[in-house]
Design goal:
- By secondary structure, this protein is an alpha+beta fold.
- The termini are far apart.
- Helices cover 30% and strands 27% of the residues.
- The protein folds into 2 domains: 30 residues; 128 residues, no CATH class.
- The strands form 2 sheets. It has a 6-stranded antiparallel sheet. A two-stranded antiparallel sheet has the order 2-3.
């Protein structure tokens, strides 16, 4: 056997193993199931007061990863109606659902985005600056299905691209 073929084969096998490990780490390894506490897993910001309060929900499932503040995804159901939600809770403009791993099958970012676009899902502020520069966002469909994810807010965008933060950004922890 030619030494070049042996070396080339070794490189190909090494690359395939490395690719499989990277895939596994990104899709499975870092994510952990979030244990539901049963009372405050889904919270939204009240329009009148700006306070965050839990809403009624059932069938809560969530995943998160410590490797990134925007890897949180959750699904739930709620009996709350659109009129009640829109009169009580703060809307969130410009939210775009982030993809979840395929194995977390209750969260389909493309389908959620299509419902938001069609107006059959409304997006609310869960909590601004849940973590500095990151907002928690809640989308609820007209049939009571709900989804939660994290969005990088304006302050987070500025911090990550190096722009000056401005006066409307809260101080960072430790500043």
């Amino acid at each position: 056997m030619n030494a070049g073929k042996l070396i080339g084969g070794g490189i190909v096998v090494s690359a395939l193993v490395f690719g499989a490990v990277v895939y596994y780490m990104q899709i499975y390894h870092f994510y952990e199931e979030v244990k539901a506490n049963g009372t405050a897993d889904v919270e939204m910001t009240v329009m009148a007061s700006g306070t965050v309060e839990p809403i009624l929900y059932e069938d809560f499932k969530a995943i998160d990863a410590e490797s990134s503040p925007i890897r949180y995804r959750a699904c739930f159901t709620t009996p709350m109606s659109f009129p009640m939600l829109t009169e009580t809770y703060e809307n969130y403009e410009g939210a775009v659902p982030k993809n979840a791993p395929d194995w977390f099958d209750c969260f389909d970012a493309a389908a959620i985005g299509a419902e938001i676009e069609a107006g059959t899902a409304l997006v609310f502020t869960g909590q601004r600056n849940f973590e500095w520069g990151i907002d928690r966002v809640v989308a609820i469909t007209d049939d009571g299905r709900g989804y939660v994810w994290h969005e990088i807010n304006q302050c987070g965008d500025k911090a990550y691209d190096g722009s000056p933060l401005g006066k409307d950004c809260p101080p960072r922890d430790g500043e």
